[in-house]
Amino acid sequence: MLMEDAALTAGQVAHFNDHGYLTPLTAVSPAQAREFRERLEMIEAKLGREAEGYLKIKAHLASPWMTDLARHPRIVSAVQSVLGPDLLLTGSSFFAKNARDPRFVSWHQDAAYFGLSENAQVTAWVAFTPSTVQSGCVRVLPGSHLGENMRHEERISKDNLLARGQTIVDIDESRAVSMELQPGQFSLHHVKTAHCSHANQSDDRRIGLAFFYMPTRVASIRGRRSAMLVSGVDEYNHWDPDPMPRCDLDPVCVAELDRVWGNYTKGAYRLT
Ligand SMILES: O=C(O)CCC(=O)C(=O)O
Predict the structure, then answer these.
(1) Keyword Nucleus on this protein (predicted)?
(2) How many CB atoms lie within 10 A of CB 233?
């Protein structure tokens, strides 16, 4: 792994604060991203199911290399530049579309669902494959993090990768920005930034792992939950520690993955 620190410049922080996103940044080399993809596909083979629709909410519990990636200095330094030194990872989700896959992600703001005491949270979306306009990369609406939460409806559909089908009712797509990434690169977006992605029209999979970070001061407004400290110290103890995977598909962690994903699909992460 590339181990050096990668604090953002003042200009990059200003861009994130003004527009609610920043892209592209580099976490690992294309070869390392290829290796992550292969390791993920080995896990999918063991599970007998795709990451999409299962490695959700706390995907990082599936393997130690995922918890290592969540703590990667290049990603953590970038997030620290906007959120400060003491960081928790509240969760992570694979967004994995197959080649020529009609599945999409509807326009939504994570803030409408995450149940946090303040909207101080940042997603780092790490590309394991090329994520392009053709393959259905993440699209953001610049500046949408600055206003009120937008009105969402739950429009559950078999092709929507969001199990609750959360969809912003009125969106002006004309100003949307496509965050194209090459394998090993990542983007950042704010918890209130409206975002979506379209179907994959390419001949390869489009796989990204989204990590959700927040400062340790932020609490859950949906009862006690768990998180993983990725940097600094936690003087607040608002969150219980996540179990740490000792191997691929560690049974203790798989039980937790099943529990949180089950809660989500049953509606535990409802509109705030
Ligand atoms: O990867 C995608 O298509 C959507 C990503 C997303 O919704 C997120 O990172 O919160």
Answers:
(1) no
(2) 9
